[in-house]
Amino acid sequence: MALKLGAKLAWYGHSTFLIRTDAGADVLLDPWIWKPDRPAGAMNNPKCPEGFQPIEKLDAILLTHGHFDHIADTVDVFERYRPAAVVCNWEIGEWLKKQGLPEDAVLQMNKGGTAEVAGMSVTMVHAFHSSGIADGDRIVYGGEPAGYVLGLQSGKRIYCAGDTAVFSDMALIAELYPPDLALLPIGDLFTMGPREAAKACELLGVAAVVPIHWGTFPPLTGTPEALRQECAARGVEVDVVEVEPGAWVD
Ligand SMILES: [Zn+2]
Description:
alpha/beta, binds zinc ion
């Protein structure tokens, strides 16, 4: 990536990233990782290379919504690395406290708000999706799904879209917090596919996009190549950065 972002990202596959800023902050997005001791019936992230674990220390965890493929390992990772903050919406925060997370570690916010987390600004923005939390055999209300714009100390911004459809207010995100890099879902079925993601790139005006939430399961059919073609067809100039699970991008 020609972009001087001021951070590097490690992709676990699906939607999970470790973001390590040049200023020394380590932030984990939507933790669903590979664990050797996963109980029977619970699923490891199929794209996460076995044993991949780039965390050395952790300052914060960010959660976009309550689905298992985004929050599955929040409690385990928290207990292991004790980050200062787990950032999420109000409802997921209340649920996490019931799972044993300490009150002072859960940073609850909602859309439109900005918090200072690990030396960066974290703005919660809109996403079109759902957010129910599977808790035993019940679905618990998990508030509304969200995305985040991270304002790095370098002055650059990363837009983490979470799971979402394309929406025209991405133009507002571009106006208020112009991102340099976007992490956009392209898998289709549960989120945007490549066609919609190309429109999202146009609305956001980003220099680079890392496609996420694709290829994890057979129904998530969107590919970075298809996104490249859709962007070309639309005349959108964006660097589609294809990452291998288990690799760093900087
Ligand atoms: Zn998802």
